[in-house]
Amino acid sequence: MKKILLTTLIIFSSLLNAQYIKVTPNGYVLGDGDNGLIIDIPNKTASELYTNTLDFINKNYNNPDDKVFAKTENKYIRFTTIDYKIFPIKTILGDSWVSGYTTYEIDFKDNKIRVYSINPYMYRGDYTNSYDFKCGLFNSIYTCKGQLKKEAAKNHVVENIEAYYNNFFNALKIHLSEKNNDW
Predict the structure, then answer these.
(1) Residues 106, 36: Cα–Cα separation, whole Å
(2) Cross-strand bridge partners of residue 94
(3) Nearest alpha carbon to residue 81 among 67, 98, 70
(4) Residue of 53, 28, 164 lying closest to 99 (CA atoms)
(5) What is d(CA 43, CA 106) in angstroms, rounded to the nearest whole number?
(6) For the packed helices 2-16 and 157-177, what is the interaxial angle rounded to 10 degrees?
(7) Which residues pair with 101 in a beta bridge?
(8) Are 122 and 97 in contact (CB under 8 A)?
(9) What is the pTM assigned to this prediction?
């Protein structure tokens, strides 16, 4: 029952949300892959988008000052999120969670942002077992031939990762698109 519900949720959310990111045997592909992910936000200046991105970070993450590592006002920001319990995973050793952290790099222009880099680090359970896309004996999603491993397929790993990041980008887009409320 849980598998059916999870699969339905993933399919439903992928139909509602744009596909901002795709997981491949070589890692992540953002947007069209050449220029990164371009998100159009009509009627917003670069300054508004920059300020609203900082606001998004402040509202959604603890200790936001510790999350922003580099910024050029109204032009660029690099920040890191800590991602607890991205998705559950079942192994022969029992149930576990995949968690991690992600560093994002975003450029700002009038009416759009460009996410040109994300650097995710995922791990299972005890924070020491990294979870990788490249081939490996343990904790990798793909075989060395670029095929999805059985455990990864069984746990819907690719779908879960894509849904997680697509939901993040969708939430950011919605936040950036909102009208300023200067009550």
Answers:
(1) 10
(2) 91
(3) 67
(4) 164
(5) 18
(6) 40
(7) 82, 121
(8) no
(9) 0.80
pLDDT for 27-48, tens place per residue?
A: 788 887 778 899 999 999 999 9
Q: Name the helix (H) or strand (E) containing 69.
A: strand 68-72
C-alpha span between 109 and 115 (Å, rounded):
12
Torsion sign, CA atoms 120, 123, 128, 133: negative
Contact between 100 and 86 (Cβ < 8 Å) = yes
117-169 pLDDT per residue, tens: 888 888 876 666 777 777 766 677 888 888 888 877 777 888 888 898 999 99
CA 158 to chain centre: 12
Specify whether the backbone of 31 is left (phi greater than 0), alpha (psi in -120 to 50) or beta: left
Type of residue found at 175:
H
> What are the tokens at 151?
């455990």
Whole-angstrom Cα Rg for the chain: 17
> Residue 128: how many CB atoms within 10 A of its CB?
7
Q: What is the DSSP letter of 4?
A: H
Helix (H, G, I), strand (E, B) or coil at 151: helix
Q: In angstroms, what CA-CA distances link 31 with 56, 82, 116, 174?
A: 21, 22, 9, 17
